[in-house]
């Protein structure tokens, strides 16, 4: 004897709909939490004002390129930021640098950076960076000229 199958009722349909929308809502809440938790902020506060300054920024970049300075930026084994700067392959003497180390996701506070010359064209940060990935926003100057660099280090 084959028992007759149970009929599909409104209660079955309600259970299916509640389970389906429960999964959709749960996934949306998890994704929203990840989106808000990893948002590092804005690049510019006012895009209209930034657009008005864009041509000036391009001109500064061209002037910076015209200097012909070659900068290598990285970390040493003790996590001190290092800057090596040269012109035509020769170390550039008398350079000074300052900057800020910012956490790319904004989870850690920014760190002000000071540099000490260790050799002509070579600068070393006065303190090490904590572990992790950091974005160095640097200003390197010599004489009346300066360049700005942004480098990500790990």
Describe the structure.
The chain is of the alpha+beta class. Strands 1, 2, 3, 4, 5, 6, 7 and 8 form an eight-stranded antiparallel β-sheet that branches. The protein contains two helices and eight strands; from the N terminus they run H-H-E-E-E-E-E-E-E-E. The chain has two domains: 9-39; 69-153, Domain of unknown function DUF4426 (Immunoglobulin-like, Sandwich). The mean pLDDT is 92. A hairpin with an 8-residue loop joins strand 4 and strand 5.
At the first level of CATH, the class of the largest domain is Mainly Beta
CATH architectural label of the largest domain: Sandwich
Tell me what portion of residues adopts beta-strand conformation.
35-45%
Percent helix range: 25-40%
Rounded mean pLDDT is: 92
Total number of beta strands: 8
Q: What is the string of helix and strand elements?
A: HHEEEEEEEE
| Name of the CATH superfamily of the largest domain | Domain of unknown function DUF4426
Provide the gyration radius in Å: 27 Å
- How many structural units, i.e. domains? 2
Question: The biggest beta sheet, please?
Answer: 8 strands, antiparallel
Brief sketch in words of this structure:
The chain crosses the membrane at residues 12-31. The chain has 154 residues and is an alpha+beta fold.
Protein traits:
Immunoglobulin-like; 2 helices; FixH; transmembrane helix
């Amino acid at each position: 004897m084959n028992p007759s199958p149970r009929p599909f009722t409104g209660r079955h349909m309600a259970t299916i709909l509640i389970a389906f929308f429960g999964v959709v809502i749960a996934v949306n809440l998890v994704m929203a939490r990840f989106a808000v938790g990893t948002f590092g902020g804005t690049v510019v506060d006012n895009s209209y004002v930034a657009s008005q300054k864009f041509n000036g920024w391009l001109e500064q970049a061209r002037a910076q390129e015209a200097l012909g300075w070659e900068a290598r930026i990285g970390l040493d084994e003790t996590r001190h930021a290092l800057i090596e700067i040269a012109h035509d392959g020769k170390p550039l003497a008398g350079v000074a640098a300052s900057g800020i180390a910012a956490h790319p996701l904004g989870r850690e506070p920014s760190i002000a950076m000071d540099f000490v010359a260790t050799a002509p064209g070579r600068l070393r940060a006065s303190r090490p960076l904590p572990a992790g990935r950091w974005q160095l926003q640097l200003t390197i100057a010599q004489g009346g000229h300066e360049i700005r660099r942004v480098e990500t280090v790990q």
